Amino acid sequence: MRLAVVDARATLLTDAGPVDVERESEGRFPSDVTRLYEKWAAFREWARGYPSAPSTAPLPASAFLGPVSPRPAQILAVGLNYVDHAAESGFGVPEAPIVFTKFASSIAGPFDQLALSGDSVDWEVEMVAVIGIGGRAISAADALDHVAGFTVGQDYSDREVQFLGAPAQFSLGKSFPGFAPLGPVLVSPEDMPAPEKTVLECMVDGEVMQSAPLSDLIFPVPDLIARLSAVVTLTPGDLIFTGTPPGVGFGMSPRRYLRRGEVVRASITGIGAIEQVCA
Ligand code: ZN
Predict the structure, then answer these.
(1) Least-confidence region, from 66-75, 89-98, 267-276
(2) How many A from CA of 91 to the centre of ligand 1?
(3) Average pLDDT, stretch 264-276?
(4) Which residue(s) pair with 163 in the sheet?
(5) What is the mean pLDDT of the chain?
(6) What is the phi/psi pair of residue 77, to 5°?
(7) Angstrom distances, CA of residue 117 to CA of 42, 179, 192, 241
(8) Which residues contact 167 (CB under 8 A, 6 or more apart)?
């Protein structure tokens, strides 16, 4: 299944074109995607009657696309989940996921402008899991059944704010408005390519900064969901930012941060690309 939020309405992208969920279901399912996640099990069954558009099909106009989960109750984000990113950040390989949050007011549409908060704003392409069916103490074996789908996210980070004081605290520096763009679509687990064929890439002004397969994750998605839900009760629409591969500006020598006018493009195989112009 490929789902987009078009003009604030949940829209299935089918092989016969976009289908408005609320109208097509005659009101059985809501147009508000946040409420749709609460009916995910029934919706997923209903949506099986509409074969997915191929990942190469053109998207609705970018100006109308919104974040695929605009008001999650919770955002869990994982730091240092790729070996070489942990190394470039000056840390060893973690024995357990390093978890922080991005506050929900940082969520933005896939093509919204990025207002730079200062001179040390950095990119971090990440695959983001959206929870469909909530729960606690979910096993790794059952984890993907709880995932509505995956989308492309950026975990934009103001490094100066992030590393203000010791120990560093991540959440504030990653929560300025627009620091969590999501999109362009949600792709259900069964429609995703295998992890080794799912490549995350981030480009700044056309230069490839990050490129790595999802199979490089230290804690793969099912394992993450098992570990996180051992503590937290996950609820429909919740987001899990799964970590960024190496190649962030903070890890470069000299450090390289975003400047006004630069264009940041993040993409993941099988999902698509999101793009921000820095303002
Ligand atoms: Zn991150």
Answers:
(1) 89-98
(2) 14
(3) 98
(4) none
(5) 96
(6) -130, 140
(7) 42, 10, 34, 21
(8) none
Ligand 1 geometric centre to CA of 160 (Å):
15
Domain contains 40: no
> Which residue's structure tokens are 């000056």?
90
Q: Ligand 1 centre and the CA of 155: distance in Å?
A: 5
Backbone angles phi, psi at 248, to 5 degrees: -80, 160
Q: What is the CATH number of the domain that holds 271?
A: 3.90.850.10
Confidence of residue 86 (pLDDT cuts 50, 70, 90): confident
The number of distinct structural domains making up the chain is 1
| Cβ count within 10 A of residue 56 | 6
Question: CA 48 to CA 44: how far, in whole Å?
Answer: 6
Q: Which residues contact 221 (CB under 8 A, 6 or more apart)?
A: 127, 129, 143, 144, 147, 240, 242
Q: Is residue 247 part of a domain?
A: yes
Do the domain assignments include residue 35? no
Give kind and range of the element (H or E) at residue 225: helix 221-229
Residue 87's pLDDT is what? 86
Where in the sequence is the domain holding 190, given as residue range(s)? 69-277
Q: Give the three-state DSSP class for 4.
A: strand
Q: Whose CA is closest to 40, among 148, 191, 149, 189?
A: 148
Q: Which residues are within 5 Å of ligand 1 (an ion), measured at CB?
A: 124, 155, 244
Q: Is the dihedral of CA 217, 219, 223, 228 positive or negative?
A: negative
Q: What is the mean pLDDT of residues 273-279?
A: 98
Which residues does 23 contact at the CB level (< 8 Å), separation at least 6? none
CA distance 69 to 130: 7
Averaged pLDDT, 61-73: 96
Q: How far is the CA of 267 from the centre of ligand 1 (A)?
A: 15
Q: Give me the residues paired with residue 274 across strands.
A: 266
- Which pLDDT band holds residue 143 (cuts at 50, 70, 90)? very high
